[in-house]
Automatic annotation (TrEMBL):
InterPro entries for this protein: HATPase_C_sf, Heat_shock_protein_90_CS, HSP90_C, Hsp90_fam, Hsp90_N, Ribosomal_Su5_D2-typ_SF
CDD domains (UniProt xref): HATPase_Hsp90-like
Family statement: Belongs to the heat shock protein 90 family.
UniProt keyword Cell membrane, yes or no: no
Keyword Glycoprotein belongs to the record: no
PANTHER family: HEAT SHOCK PROTEIN 90 FAMILY MEMBER
Native species: Dyadobacter psychrotolerans
Pfam families xref list: HATPase_c_3, HSP90
Source organism superkingdom: Bacteria
Binding locations of ATP: 36, 40, 81, 86, 101-102, 320
Record keywords, A-Z: ATP-binding, Chaperone, Cytoplasm, Nucleotide-binding, Stress response
Gene Ontology terms for molecular function: ATP binding; ATP hydrolysis activity; ATP-dependent protein folding chaperone; unfolded protein binding
Protein name as catalogued: Chaperone protein HtpG
Length: 608
């Protein structure tokens, strides 16, 4: 039989260590104190407006605003509002009971009246962020309730406080922070202004600092799109990004089910520096700035967009400093992807000409989306455009029809030819045109990755760079040309050019080609070209390192220049002529530089 003490009771939480925890761990960045206290002041003001609309306050609202004052001499920062204020009992309830959220109780009480999403606070810990920077905090407050007495609360960060009567004529609250020695960096006007502009730039109540209103309480994402002009959207973009070019276009987000989300996303003119374009979307919760790291909410390919997203339904940690993953985040991510795809599709259908003019910029988003998001691809495949070297645009299906007859190989697979540099690869492009082959222009920083996605997603299609092989091998047909050279002459030509190439990296072949093709064609394997291009676009070192790239030297057995070289009896003259033709092939691939290029030019005066 068991014996001993048997007792039931309630656990008591001791709070002696709560302030060090708040100061060191709860808030990662000490400047957050100002965001929290100003947000609380905005809450108090918003609550009064609500009570007025519910008929529970019929006094004069007056000019509703929050004021932040700095007194360097007294080493204080004061945050004042003329909102609902507090009675002595409410201070005991909301301030002395740590983590009891007044906002939560208010929302619960009035949730049936709707619009509860306008109240900012959730956790009831915001006020205590003051102790990250303050050695002592005072509250002087007077409730909006008729006959209320003003009270003063003070606490030095210990578990003891004082609560006394105070003199205050108007309703509202003053939070007075006596700044600690280790936080005197915040006794700086420019520092405080910077924090206020960062976190409170779009708070829904006017914020006054140093006798100036520092915020825009009614940003465009809170307005009805039908009430806004193009000029309004561009002006707001300039407000967010003062030194940027005008955006291409924008998408106004507004959804209230199954989550609340508003915002405006802009398509900027992109540069090749993708990383520098990121972290330009700002996340807000009820107009309070949270972060510009939105990787969980916004799909990776759309992080190149600029703009604002505001949602009270995005889960935040207790300090509102970072996101917590849940189902809503995935839903919002999917919604944004769908909304962007629908907008692009709408523009394409309604104004294809305008869409084509902007596609060099738009295409970066679209191609990135196709590479990284299958759901986006399902919609984007109908408006993603391919541009050929003549500057003509095609959808995927249009291009399949366009090249079907001429660029289908013997295996019934279409071969799409492309160039990454029209000037450098011009000789190859011209050869393709002689066969009536079309050549796509894929020259952007993302195209090396996009090509892989094309082959995976477009059935029975191979995509090959126009200089990756001879044309007869790029697009293999059932018929083959005969060589006019004898087997002996082919071997002689092969040996001659192997000696000139002088490297184990070169593979010399003698092939019958049309007479009007080049006499010598130097090509690199498609996989090697593609891997090198992809790694260069990602800023990575080539996987091939410093190894010489394998390449093929194809001699056109049917070209008269090859015949002329073989017929040259003077051995030195034969080598000189072959060297000149070989260098010409190197030049067409951009491989002839420095002294070799100088010698080539000098020889050109007397050779050929």
């Amino acid at each position: 039989m068991e014996t001993g003490i048997q007792e039931k009771g309630n656990l008591s939480i001791h709070t002696e260590n709560i302030f060090p925890i708040i100061k060191k761990f709860l808030y990662s960045d000490h400047e957050i104190f100002l965001r929290e206290l100003v947000s609380n002041a905005v809450d108090a003001t918003q609550k009064l407006k609500k009570l007025t609309s519910y008929g529970e306050f019929d006094g004069e609202l007056g000019e509703l605003k929050v004021t932040v004052k700095l007194d360097k001499d007294a080493k204080t920062i004061t945050i004042s509002d003329n909102g609902i204020g507090m009675t002595a009992d409410e201070i005991k309830k909301y301030i002395n009971q740590i983590a009891f959220s007044g906002a939560t109780e208010f929302v619960e009480k009035y949730k049936d009246k709707g619009d509860e999403g306008k109240i900012i606070g959730n956790f009831g810990l915001g006020f205590y962020s003051a102790y990250m920077v303050a050695a002592n905090v005072e509250i002087i407050t007077k409730s909006y309730k008729e006959g209320s007495e003003a009270v003063r609360w003070e606490c030095d960060g210990s578990t003891e406080f004082t609560l006394t009567s105070a003199e205050k004529a108007e309703r509202g609250s003053d939070i007075i922070l006596h700044i600690a020695e280790d936080s005197e960096e915040f006794l700086d006007e420019h520092r405080l202004r910077g924090i206020l502009e960062k976190y409170g730039k779009f708070l829904p109540v006017q914020i006054e600092f140093e006798d100036k209103i520092i915020n825009n309480p009614n940003p465009i994402w809170t307005k009805n799109p039908s009430d806004l002009t193009d000029e309004d959207y561009i002006a707001f973009y300039k407000e967010l990004y003062p030194f940027s070019e005008d955006p291409l276009f924008w998408i106004h987000l507004n959804v209230d089910y199954p989550f609340n989300l508003t915002g405006v996303l802009y398509f900027p003119k992109l540069k090749n520096d993708f990383q520098g374009q990121r972290e330009k979307i700002q996340l807000y919760s009820r107009q309070v700035f949270i972060t510009d790291e939105v990787k969980d909410i916004v799909p990776d390919f759309l992080q190149l967009l600029h703009g604002v997203i505001d949602s009270p339904d995005i889960p935040l940690n207790v300090s509102r400093s970072y996101l917590q993953a849940d189902g809503n985040v995935k839903k919002i991510n999917g919604y944004i992807t769908r909304k962007v795809a629908d907008k692009l599709s709408e523009i394409f259908k309604n104004d294809r000409e305008g869409f084509e003019k902007k596609f060099d910029d738009i295409g970066l988003f679209v191609k990135y989306g196709i590479i990284s998001d299958d759901k986006f691809y399902e919609k984007a495949k109908d408006f993603c455009l391919l541009k050929n070297v003549e500057g003509k645009f095609f959808t995927f299906n249009e291009y399949r029809d366009f090249v079907k007859e001429n660029q289908t190989d013997k295996n019934e697979t279409q071969v799409w030819l492309y160039t990454t540099d029209e000037k450098k690869q011009d000789a190859f492009i011209q050869s393709a045109k002689k066969r009536s082959y079309d050549v796509l222009s894929l020259t952007s920083v993302i195209d090396s990755h996009f090509i892989n996605a094309l082959e995976q997603k477009v059935e029975k299609t191979n995509v090959k760079r126009v200089d990756a092989d001879t044309l007869d091998k790029l697009i293999e047909k059932d018929f083959k040309l005969d060589s006019i050279l004898s087997k002996d002459d082919e071997e002689k030509a092969k040996k001659l050019f192997e000696d000139i190439a002088g490297t184990k990296s070169a593979n010399v072949l003698v092939e019958p080609m049309p007479v009007d093709e080049l006499p010598v064609v130097i090509t690199f394997p498609e996989f090697m070209r593609r891997m090198t291009d992809m790694q260069a676009s990602s800023g990575q070192r080539s996987m091939f390192g410093d190894m010489p790239l394998m390449y093929t030297v194809s001699l056109n057995a049917n070209h008269p220049v090859i015949g002329r070289i073989l017929q040259t009896e003077d051995e030195e003259g034969q080598k000189a002529l072959a060297k000149q033709v070989y260098d010409l092939a190197l030049l067409s691939q951009g491989l002839l530089t420095g002294s070799d290029l100088t010698l080539f030019i000098q020889r050109s005066v007397t050779t050929l």
